[in-house]
Amino acid sequence: MTDSTHIHTTTATPVLPLATEGATTSVDWPIGWPAALPDTGARGVLKFVPDDFVVDELPLALPQGEGEHIWLWVEKRGANTAWVAAELARYAGVRELDVGFAGLKDRYAVTRQWFSIYFPKGETPDFLALQHDEFRVLQQLRHNKKLRRGDLLGNHFELLIRAVEGPIEAIEANLTAIRDHGYPNYFGPQRFGHGGANVPQGIAMLRREIRVRNASKKGLYLSAVRSWLFNQVVAARVVAGDWTVPLEGEPLTASGTTTAPLWGRGRSLSTAQALAFEDAVLAPYTEVLDALEHSGLSQERRALVVKPERMSWQWQQADDQTPQLRVCFSLGAGYYATSLLQEVLAVSEPDRMLAVASDATAAGENT
To answer: Which of 106, 126, 279, 319 is catalytic?
Structure first.
């Protein structure tokens, strides 16, 4: 790491209210959703190189060896998922719509995931021979189904945080607490677009101040607003100190975890104390809630607590003798590694990240 390296700090700032009046709605970013664990005062550098952020998709099913679809296990480096899908379509001579994948992955990382290509007839292309600087095909098999968004169990992460500064004992204590008890299930900044821009754009769209014709972009905007409101409820539960304790009338997950609302059409799924709490938190956003109810989305609940699996960590030393922390864990689909790190230390990323918007979006992503 040279002295000329510029670092963009993404430390937390206070949660800001989402304006609901006037035509110039904006959200200052980054928004620092309140952490549940004690502040360690520690900091470090993430994604200095792509190999510092490694993600392996945990598939819902594996290809069986025969069928009309070609499944490819692909490793990409510094490339976005949609672009890789387009390159695979071009190589196979098929439409981009014929290429499927379970989730979008971060661009500035090393990620491995499955793609499917509808190819029922003709000589099967040899994708293992496909040479590209930004991705490579590791395995090629046939299957009888297309891979669709959300068709994954989750992701396994291996993260290297460089130049760690701060008390090791406090960092270890928070890592242990996360391993044993979990952390608040905030949607990560990837969910809201580069600089959080999808939130005000989504509100403007809901107010009909702007017209969005692209169905995919419309979905991203709706998801960003809905997720922002969810985070507001999670933040309030964290501040209240009862984010792991069910309120009266609160729907729980199958495993008994507390939940918060993903807003949409229909009556709230919570009652009694939980309903009163959520109504109070979301009261300033009545206009936005009403618009979401008419957007085609339905009321849902999302887990408020995430407990990572296979979590481990170890300390290393860089060539310049600075401490490095390697953290490994698995998360279910839709959960964010960045929200886990928020509970441990403040991370910074190289300036180049300012020009690279993450590709992790609503489609089951959790980086």
So the answer is: 106
